[in-house]
From TrEMBL, chain A:
The lineage of its organism: Bacteria, Bacillati, Actinomycetota, Actinomycetes, Micromonosporales. InterPro entries: AAA+_ATPase (IPR003593), ABC_Ni/Peptide_Import (IPR050388), ABC_transporter-like_ATP-bd (IPR003439), ABC_transporter-like_CS (IPR017871), Oligopep_ABC_C (IPR013563), P-loop_NTPase (IPR027417). This is ABC transporter domain-containing protein. Residues 16-265 form the ABC transporter domain. It comes from the Bacteria. It comes from Dactylosporangium siamense.
TrEMBL record, chain B:
Keywords: ATP-binding, Nucleotide-binding, Transport. PANTHER family: D,D-DIPEPTIDE TRANSPORT ATP-BINDING PROTEIN DDPF-RELATED, TRANSPORT ATP-BINDING PROTEIN. InterPro entries: AAA+_ATPase (IPR003593), ABC_transp_ATP-bind (IPR050319), ABC_transporter-like_ATP-bd (IPR003439), ABC_transporter-like_CS (IPR017871), Oligopep_ABC_C (IPR013563), P-loop_NTPase (IPR027417). Belongs to the ABC transporter superfamily. One of its GO terms (molecular function) is ATP binding. GO terms for biological process: peptide transport; transmembrane transport. Pfam families: ABC_tran (PF00005), oligo_HPY (PF08352). It comes from the Bacteria. Residues 26-265 form the ABC transporter domain. This is ABC transporter ATP-binding protein.
Amino acid sequence: MTIELNARSTATDTVLEVDNLSVSFPTEDGLVKAVRGVSYTLRRGETLGIVGESGSGKSVTSLALMGLLPGSAKITGSARFRGEELLGKNDREMSKIRGKHLAMIFQDPLTSLNPVYPIGKQIAEAVLVHHDVSKRAAWERAVDLLKVVGIPFPEQRVNNYPHEMSGGMRQRVVIAIAMANNPEVMIADEPTTALDVTVQAQVLEALEAARTEIGAALVLITHDLGVIAGHADRVCVMYAGKLVESGTVDDIFYRPRMPYALGLLGSLPRVDEGRDARLTPIVGTPPSLLNLPPGCPFRPRCPLAQDICDEVEPDLVTVDAGGQHTAACHFSTQLVDTQATDVFAVTSVDVDTEEVAVADTDLVADTDLVADTDLIADTRPVADTRLAADTSEDAS
Amino acid sequence: MTIDTSKPAATGTVISARNLVKHFPVRSRGILRRRIGEVHAVCDVSFDIGATETLGLVGESGCGKSTTARLLLNLIRPTSGEIHYAGKDLAQLSRSQMRPLRRDLQIVFQDPFASLDPRMTVFEIIAEPLRIHGLFSGGGAAKVRELMSTVGLNSEHGNRYPHEFSGGQRQRIGIARALALRPKVLVLDEPVSALDVSIQAGVINLLEDLQHELGLSYLFVSHDLSVVRHIAHRVAVMYLGRIVETATVEDLFTKASHPYTQALISAIPLPDPRKERVRQRILLTGDVPSPVSPPSGCRFRTRCPKFAEQLSGPERELCINEVPALTDRGQGHRSACHYAEAVKLV
Ligand SMILES: Nc1ncnc2c1ncn2[C@@H]1O[C@H](COP(=O)(O)OP(=O)(O)OP(=O)(O)O)[C@@H](O)[C@H]1O
Ligand SMILES: Nc1ncnc2c1ncn2[C@@H]1O[C@H](COP(=O)(O)OP(=O)(O)OP(=O)(O)O)[C@@H](O)[C@H]1O
Ligand code: SF4
Ligand code: SF4
Ligand SMILES: [Mg+2]
Ligand SMILES: [Mg+2]
C-alpha cells in the first residue's frame, strides 16, 4: 500500500489545504491556545498521519475544519476543501459538505450510531441524504458496504442493532457509514484506540479497504506510532498546538530532525527488540496551553536547549533538499544521523527532581541507579517545576 | 550500564499459582436475582514467579488477567486452586491470618487518576500503609521522603495533592505507596496503559530499576505486548480464562507456537515503516465467545485460523472434543494447542 510521493503532484491533486489554522478557547482561567498556526495539505488518495501527545491539539484541528467546535471557539486562518473555504460556513452549509465530501470517524463508535435503529437503516439513510436512489438500492448499498469493511454475514448483520455488536464491529459500521457517499476526505480520530490489538488490525484493514474502494484521502489521528508507520504516507507531529515536524513516514521514523519526534521514538518499547534495549523517556510534561511562555514549547523537556530557545519560538522550516521534510527547531542540524540515545538519557527520574539528564555515556550508566540526584547534578536545571503542576490540572 | 536487566537473577520460586479457577455468578434481573449461570473468568491457571523476576500476563480485554492478579494476592477467593507463598496456601488463610502477609504482597492499578484519594496529600497517601501497619512512628516521615525520591519524585512536594501532579507522576505515587511496606511481590495491573509513551518510558525504567535494587517479583499485567516484551522475563498468554502459551520472553516472541499468540504478535503495529510494508498479518475473524458458555475442547477454536484453514475434518475433532493441555510440544516451551508449531513473526 505504499503510495509513491513525487514532485509531480500538482495543485489540482490537493483535496484539503489547511493554512495557518489557529483555535483558542476563552475559559475562566484565560485563553487556551489549543491550535497555533497549523498548515498542511492533503493530496488525493494519500494518508496523512497526525501524531502527538494527549492535549497537543490533534482533535481540535480536525474538529475546527469540520465545523464541529462549540461556538465559543475562536478560529482563525483557513481550511479549503478543493479550493472552497470551509471556515465561516454556517451549520447548514457545513452539514451539506460533511458526509458527502468530508467524513469523520471518532474513537467511540457509539457517538456516531443511533441505538434505536438497525445499522442497515443507518447506513442506508446516510446514502439517501446525498443521493437520489430508491430505498431498496440504498439498503443493498448498505450490505455492500458492510462486506467491504469485513463484517461476516452482512445480509444478516445489516438487521442488527448497535448493542448487538462488539466494539470492533461497531467501528466498522461507522466506517461503512463514512464511506456511504464516497467522500474525498475521511478524518479518523483515534479510530482504534479503545480496541484490542487483533480487533485494531481488523478495523485498520477495514479502513484501508474503504479508502482504496472509494479512493479517498485519509487523515489518521493517533498517538500510536506503530499505526502511523503501517498506514501513513506522510506524517505531521504536533506538540503544544503546533506542528513541530512533518515529512514522509520514512523522514519521521528514520531521519527525525526535531528532538520531540526523536524522543518519542526512543521512548517506545518495541516488540521486535529484546529486553536489553533500554528506553529513553522524555522527562517532564507538555506545557500548559494557558499563558504559554515565549520560546520553544519543548524547551523545558529538551536536552539540546540553549538560551535562544527561551526567547524565540522556532519556525517550521524545510530541512531537506526536496522540501518535503520540515522541522521546528533552532538546532535541527544537530540531529542529522543521531539516535535517541545520543540525545536523551536512559533515566527513571521525573523532571520534578530538579533536572533534565543530558545523554552522555557516563550519565547514561549512572542514572541506572534510581533517583540519585547527585549523579545527574552536572546537568542543566530545568525550568519552573510549576509547569508540570499546571498541565496536570489542565489534563484532569 | 552496571546492571544487566536482560536476565533474571532468578533464584527459587517466590510465589506460585496452582490450578486457579474463578467463576462469577451471573444473576437474573429483577428482585429475585436468581443465579442463571457462571462467568468462567479464570480456568485452571498455574504459574511461578521467582525473585527478581517478571512474569508478563497478556491477553485481550476480558480474558481474565485482572481476575488472575487479584486471585494471586488473595484479594478475591478462588473457586478452587492454591496460591503458595512463604510455605502457606493463601487461599486457605482467614483475613487475620492473611494480614501479616499483606505487607509482602502489593498491587499497583492502571488508573493513576482514580486510585488515589484526591483529598489526601501525597505524603499522607504514601504514609497510610505505614500507619495501618503501625510502622509510621520512628522515622516514618523520613521513610516517606525516601520513598518519594526512590520513585523519582521531588521529596519536597509531599504537601501537594494528587491533582497537582501529571499522570506519570501520579503513577509514581501509586508505586511509592505500594513500596512503603517493602513488599516482595508486586502485582502491576496495566501500570502504564494510561500514560503517553514519552512518560510511560520513564515509569518502565523505574520499575526495572526498582526490581533490581529491591529484588522484587513482578506479575506484570498488560494488553500491550511491546511493553511486555520489554519488561518481562517470562510471558503467559491468556485467552478466555486459560493460559494458552507460556515461555521465556525471547522464545515467545521468536517461536510462538499457539495460533492465538501468533495472531496477537502479528497484529501489533511496529513503529518501523519498512518492516510494516512487508509484514504479513494473521487476521482473526469473529468475536471472542462469551465466558458464560465457552466453546468445548479448545476455547480458541471458533476463531482459530489453523482450525478453519489448515486442519482436516478428523483433525478438527480433537480440537472440538479435547481441551489441549498446556505442555511442551517440542518447541522448548509450553503451548495449549494440539497442533502447535513454532513460527517466527517479528
Ligand atoms: N471546548 C474546549 N474548551 C476549552 N479547552 C478545550 C476545549 N476543547 C479542547 N480544549 C483544549 O485544547 C487542547 C487540545 O485538545 P485536543 O482535544 O485537540 O487534544 P488531542 O491532541 O486530540 O489529545 P488526545 O490525544 O488526548 O485526544 C487541550 O488542552 C484541551 O484541553
Ligand atoms: N466481579 C465480577 N462479577 C462478574 N463477572 C466478573 C467480575 N469480575 C470480572 N468478571 C468477568 O470476568 C471476565 C474476566 O475479567 P477480567 O477483569 O479479569 O479481564 P481482564 O483480562 O483484566 O480484562 P481488561 O483487559 O479489560 O482489564 C470478564 O468476562 C469479566 O466480565
Ligand atoms: S528549539 Fe531548542 S528547545 Fe526547541 S527543540 Fe530545538 S533545541 Fe530543543
Ligand atoms: S487446538 Fe486446534 S483450535 Fe485450538 S489453537 Fe490448536 S489448532 Fe486451533
Ligand atoms: Mg483527541
Ligand atoms: Mg483488567
